[in-house]
Amino acid sequence: MERRSRVEHYVSARMDFFVYSRDVAGTALRDDRELLEEHWSYMDTFAKSMIARGPTLAADRETATGSLHVLGLPSVDAVREFVAREPNNRAGLYADHFIWRFENLLGRTMWEFSGADAEKFLVIARSGRDQSLGRSGRPIPPDGLPPEFRERLILCGALSTLDGAEPVGVALAVQARGRTAVAALLSDGRTGFDAFPEVEIHDWEFGGRR
Question: Counting beta carbons within 10 angstroms of the beta carbon of residue 125, is it exposed (0 to 12), middle (13 to 18) or buried (19 or more)?
C-alpha cells in the first residue's frame, strides 16, 4: 500500500529535484538524537513525494558525510524552501548544497528496487564547463546500458540547472560489491561515463527511520 501511494504521488509531481547536502567536516551534530528525530519527522511530511533518500558515508560505512534527497515538488521555490527549513540545515549540519532538476530515467522510486543485498553507492557525474562534450552532458538511457550495469541501478537520472535549460550531468545510485566494482562498471566505455570529467563516488545507504 505504501509503495502504491509513493508511485501515485510521484506520477502527479510537477518537477523532480536532486538535493545533495554535504556535512560540515568533523561535526558532531549527527550524534544528536533529538535533531535526528526532528529530521525524520520533517521528512515524513514529504514521504509521498520522495523518490530516493539516504546518507552518504565515509569509507568505514559508519560515519555520515552528507545527505541525498530526490523528490517531486511543485516549483523551484518549493525545493529551496525544502532545503532552508530542513532541521539538519537549520542546525548547521551542512556545509553546502547541490540542487538540480532531476529527470527520473527509471521512472520509479528506490523502494521499488529489488536487487540482492549488497553495498550501495551514489555516483554524481558532471560535465563541467566544457559543453562540447558528447551528448551535451546527457546520460546514456538505461536501456542502452550493459545488462550487468542496468540490473544494479537503484536510481538513475539526468541533472540540469534549476531552470531546466542547461544539462549538468547524471546521478545514479548503484548496488555493487565494493567501490572497486563500481569503478569498474563506470570505466566500461558502454556506460558513457568517460564523457564526464568530474565523477564522484560516495558510499551510500537507504535512508529513513531505523
Answer: buried
